Every structure is written in C-alpha cells, then in structure tokens.
Amino acid sequence: MRAVSVHTLATDPYRAGVELGERLSSISPEVVFLFASIHLSTSQDLLLGLYDGLGKDAVVVGNSGDGVFSVEGVHEFGASALGLNSEGKVRWSIARAVGVGQDPVGTTRKVLANAEAILGGKKAALMMLLSDFSADASDIEKVIEQETDIPVVGGLAADDNQMGDCTVFANREILRDAVVLLIAEGELDFSIHIGNSIMPLGQPGTIEAAQGRTVERIDGLQAQRFIELQTGKQVLQSDRGMTTLTIIDPDQPAVKRLRSIVPMFAGQATGLGLYGGIEVGKRVQVCLAQPEALLQEVREIAEESAEQGPAVAAIVISCTGRKQMLDEEVRQEASILTEAHGPGLALTGFPSFGEIGPLRLPDGRYSRNLFHNMTYVLTLIR
Amino acid sequence: MTPRLFCTWDHPPAGFVQRKAITRKDVLNGPVAFLLMEEDDLDRIFSPYMAQMTGIILVPGLRCEPLQRGPRLWQMFCNPADVNQLACFVTPMLVMLSELLDNHDQHIRLMSAKGRVQRELEITLQDYRRVTADMRHQLNELMAAKERVLVSEAALRQLNQDLEARVHLRTKELSTANEELHDTLISLRAMQDQLVQAEKLAALGSLVAGVAHEINTPVGNSMLAASTLSRRLLELQETLSKGLSRSSLENFLEDAVGATDLIQRNLNRAAELVESFKHVAVDQHGGRRREFDLARTVHEVVIMIQPTINNTPFTLHVDVAEGIVLDSYPGALSQALTNLINNAIVHAFADRPGGNIFITGREQPGDSVALTVRDDGHGIPQSSLKRIFEPFYTTRLGQGSSGLGLHITYNAVCRLGGRIDVQSSPDQGTEFMLIFPRSAPT
C-alpha cells in the first residue's frame, strides 16, 4: 500500500484542490480522503481543483470539518487529503443517500443497501461512513450496529463550531443532508483504535424523559440540573461538546459510549441538547475530561498500534470537543502518531461533531459499530 | 513561485509558454499572465473565470491604460514590437499579485480566526454574564438570608433576655418554694417523729391495757381470797368467844391455808406480769442495749399481747429455740415483733373468721438469728409489697391505720443491724423474716 498525505492553507477552493491533487498525483491514488474547513467545503471548486490536480479519476470521499488534521497538526483553515494506492488489491467504491436529517434510519439503510448492490454479494473489509451532522446519529448507530457486521469507521461532518452548515464529499459531488459510504473490498490491512477513556464522576442517573437529541429529565431532575449537581458547577455554553454523558450498558460493560452535551439556554428551554440521542431508561454518568488524560490515551493507542508494525496511513476522526479542550495541544493528536509510526506516516482527518467506530473487545475482535462523542477514532492502514 | 506566462501564439515570446488549449487549471490555479492573439479571444475564453482569476491578460494594442476585468484581473495592451520584453515586465507584476494573493489568503484566514475568536469571546461573555447573573442572584439571596439571620438573631436575643428574666423569676420562685418545702419537710419530719412516738406510746398504752386486764384477774382472785380469809377470821373470832371446837379450828386452818395459797399464787402471777411489763416498757421506752434471751423476750411480748389476742378468733403459735442469747436492743426487737403481730391481726385477718400467726426463732449461719412472723391471712398484693415500709403507707386509710407500724418495724430492725425479707402471695399469707446479728452493731 502506498500513501501520500498533503494539506493546504490556500483560501481559494479551486487552488486548494489543485494543490492537493497535484501533490497526490505522484502515487496515482485509487482513493482520496479529503477533509476541508467549512470555508473551502461549500464550493464545487474544491473538488474540481482536486480532480484537475490529480489529472485522472479517483474515488474521493470526505467532508467538512472543524478544521483538518495533517502530519503537521491541526489547522483551523485549509484542506487535508490522503491518497492510497493498493496496486489494485483493494477495490474502492462510494454509496450515497440523501435525506438523513429527516430519516436517519431509512437513509442509512438505503446507503447500506446501495453498498450491498455495489458489492454484489462480496463482503467489504471496511467501510467509512460520513454524514451531515443534522442527523440524529444515534439513529444511524442503530442501523450500523444492528444491520451490518462490517467494521464501520467515520464521523459527522462539522463546521467551524457554529453548527450552521456542513458538506459531505462523494467523488465529484458536494452533498448536504446526506450519508456517504466508502466501501473497501479486498486485501486491506487496517486496524481501528478508539480513545474514549475519560473517567466518569458523580452518581449515575436514569434518563426519564428524552426526545430525539434532547434529554429533558434525569433521575427526577431537569437534565441540566442533574449535570450541575454531578459536576458541582453551572452548565455553560463553553461546556458544549466537552461535558459528556457516558451510557452505561450493564450487559456489555466493555462497550462504552459517550455523548457530549449542547446546553440550551434559549427561551424557556429546560432540556439538554446532545450530539446524539439517548433512549429513555438508559443509565448515564457525567464525564469531565482532563487534557492530559486525553493525550495519554492517544499516546497509549500510538504505542500499542506501533508495536504491530508501522502503518503507512492514518485517518484521525476526533471530536471537536477534544480540540476545544486541548486547544493548541490538539496538534499532539497527530504528532504523537507520527512520532510512534515514523515520519513517513501519511495522515489526514478532521475534528468532528460525532465519531463512529467499533471498540476493540478484550478478546481482540471488534464490537458492533457504535456512535461516540468526545472520542478519538483512529484508522491505521498498513 | 514560478511565474505562469502562457500565450496562444504560434511562436511564444521569450518567457511565455504556448497553450493551444487553455485549461481551467491554467486559468484558476494562481496568478497567471496570458498573451492572446486578439482582444476578442478574451471574453470568449475567460468570461466564466473572470471573477476568480488573478492575473493579467495581454492583448496586442497600443493603448496604455489597463482595464480591470475582475477583482484581481486586469487587461493590458502590448505593442507587438515589444513582446519579447513582456516577460520582464509581467513577471514582477505576477510576483506582486502572488504576494497579494498570499496576503489575501492570510487576510481571509485571519478574518476566519478573528470570527472564531469573536464567537468564542461572545460565548465566553454570555457565560460570564450568566455566571455573573447567577452569582448576583446568589449574592442577593445571601444578603436576604443575612438580613433574615440578623432579624432572627435580634429576636433570639430578645427571646434570650425574656427567657433569662423568666428563669430568674422562676428561680426566685423556686427558691422560695424550696425554702417553704424545706420548712414543710422539717415540719413533716417533726410530725412524723411525733406520730412515730405517738404510735409507740399507743402500742405501749395497748400493752398497759392488756397488762392491766391480765393483772386484774390474779389481783381480783387475791382480793376475793383475802376477803374470804378476813371473813373466816371474823367468824373464828366470834366462835372463839362462844367456845371454839376443834373441828371449827381445823376447818378454818384448812380454809386459811387454801386462801393464803391462792393469794400467794395470784400475787406471784401479778408480780410476774408486772416484771414482764416493766421489762418490755423499759426496753421499748428506754431503748437500752443489754444481753437478753430471745425466747424469753418473745415470751414476754406474747404475754403482753396475749390479752389482745384472746379477744380475737386468731391463734398465736410460738416456736423459738431456747438458749439464743443476744447482745442487742430488746426494746427494738419487742417493738418490731409487737407491730408485726398487730399488723397481722389488723390487716392479714381483716374480715376473716379465724387465722394463725406463727412465730419462729432460729439461729442462722454467720452468728445471726432469724425471727419469722408468718400468717395465713390475705397476703399483700405485689403492687403494695415494695411500699409497705414507707411511712404513712396504708391500705386502710381512715380506718384507724396510721401507716407507721411497718415503718417503725423497719427502723427497729435497722437498729438491730438486720434486715427484713418479705414474701407474700394472695390468699397464701405473708412471711416477715427478720435476720439480724447476735451482736448489734455499735
């Protein structure tokens, strides 16, 4: 597997695309993972430039993010791309479906059905799912958790933390309200690593009232009040994406999922927004991350993965809440990997509004596919 | 940056690269200079891109003034005779445009970063206002709470003052009441002592009455015998003057011997009674300590009390071991025994046609003695049993009972250095066991 990653700070989408495409063209990539800040992602010119720069066709998948990851760190503005060439050992294809905001379950089913049609009975090795953040990703999770056993990594597209707009790339198309699935079929050597080890604090509570991505009541209290009692501090807007609820699954203690909060202060709102819904009856516990703990789990992932041999490419999908909390040190979420796997590691990725990936179970297998918040999802290609 | 200079001419001038077909990438990928064959080509080729292009489009012509065709696109004219110098002229301009573009990129990035900082600042400000409002609210609540505390403290102070005044008043009243109570207690104790003394005297009076009754019989017998003897002497005197016959003398002597014997026996009995009474009365009244025989003392008490018993349907059974000599207070023992017997008569057999009182006396291990007074009467209820030795405790209040009898008994036994054990069951009678040392404590 050959891999090249590039990034650009150009502000003109076309020039940015050309710059990326020209530099990726050195390996004639079969697939390009393209992530860009929202400033570049709304114009078709980015993809036009990319293809013009590549000078040939390739499968392109990606989306807008709250900045982008590159081997140099994290950039608020710009675009980052990673090209792979497996010499034909892996067949890459794209499935897409629109309407995820209104019907996340139906749209996800549709894209999975499209993928099956493309595969024609073969089984994919890995899939990457990228979605508009307007969807309730816990509904997407229900489908990819229960209706496919193929490992799915991915995340929700983002913008510059205004939650105003986002786009998803599918070859030459820039899509909104869509789910895009990259299908990799063939001899793909990959590993998926999840960092979500932040520790819970306080007492668990039971969700008693919830609607979509809004939780109204936990343990007889307004959801916001419950958080305040557990953390000992007022819920603030700046907690958005950083204060998290962990969903406790007594049947599967190894399966841990996090949901970041979106405080709602407008009007008479009493509930608590989340980056993904939680069903009534679930037990949750508040988590407050510590920056050093976030970086430590990345270090552990990097060291553990490097022991399996250096990877050629890394795709990092990391919660934008982690980026906010780590501030400038978020660059270490990339640099720790290049230090562990060597400077030849090609790397791309984006700070996301939600992350998707299976957990590595104690027996070495992957769990079902899960949706996370405040999580670091790393896909390594060898 | 490598200047990009393209031309559509068949023979490009120095520094220019020929482009037969101009691509989008040629046009849009950064600052560029195009040398066209003729001005008409400009709109035909570049009209879709003019808003995005950065660079210079050169067309043959002699006009000097540049025309702006887009935000960063200018049209300029060149003298065909000077085209080989164009690269030298255009390249610095493209470099400048490239720097302009870089500055433009930087400006956009800065504006983006500024926008982000402003948004975060706005969020921080909103949080700050929210926290401040919340703190102000809490401060107001604290101030209100403090005000309430101050009011409460003032009320508490007043309450404390009132309480102190009331406590002072109550203490004074209590002190007065205590003094009155103390005086009353002293009076009561004096009265109790008087009553106890009166009870003892009453018991003694009862003894006296009994003894007087008992003495009355031998004295009466003696009087009868003496008057009979006197009458017989007068008869003998008259007979002597008329002539005394031997038989008359013998009859008189026989009667005289009988009478004097009768008188002697009855007077002895009276003397014995008086001696017993003297013992009991002196012992009870004087309370002196001496050596005495238990059986004899019990016997003397029984003698004293027998006249009372004789008027009742009750029977007294005495079984006291001989030879038990005590160094103690016989008066106190007599007092205790008398009261226990009287108590049985008054309480144990009330409204009963008959009854028995058993008095037993035995030596006990440890140089002590047990004197038991047991009856087969009503018994004492359990609820009363703990209180029977309390002064003035009686179940026959207003029926002639003072409630002091057993209290006096208790004190008497205490004086002996002993104790009283009581066992009683309803309708099974009551047993008082007095256990005391042979030698009373000093």
Write a structural description.
The complex is a heterodimer of chains A (382) and B (442). Chain A has 382 residues and is of the alpha+beta class. Chain A is built from 9 helices and 25 strands. Chain A has a 6-stranded mixed beta sheet with strand order 1-6-2-3-10-11. Chain A has a 6-stranded mixed beta sheet with strand order 7-12-8-9-23-24. The longest helix of chain A is centred in the C-terminal third of the chain and has 17 residues, at 291-307. Chain A starts with a strand and ends with a strand. In chain B, the strands form 3 sheets. In chain B, strands 2-1-3-4-6-5 form a 6-stranded mixed beta sheet. Chain B has a 5-stranded mixed beta sheet with strand order 8-10-11-13-12, covered by helices on one side. By secondary structure, chain B is an alpha/beta fold. Chain A binds chain B through residues 9-12, 14-15, 18, 37, 39, 45, 48-49, 52-53, 76-77, 160-162, 234, 236-238, 265, and chain B through 23-25, 28-30, 52, 104-105, 108-109, 112-113, 115-116, 119-120, 123-124, 126-127, 130-131, 134.
The backbone outline of chain A, from C-alpha atoms, is: globular
Write down the Rg of chain B.
Answer: 70 Å
Helicity of chain B, in percent? 55-70%
Roughly how many Å apart are the termini of chain A? 7 Å
SSE ordering of chain B: EEHEHEEEHHEHEEHEEHHEE
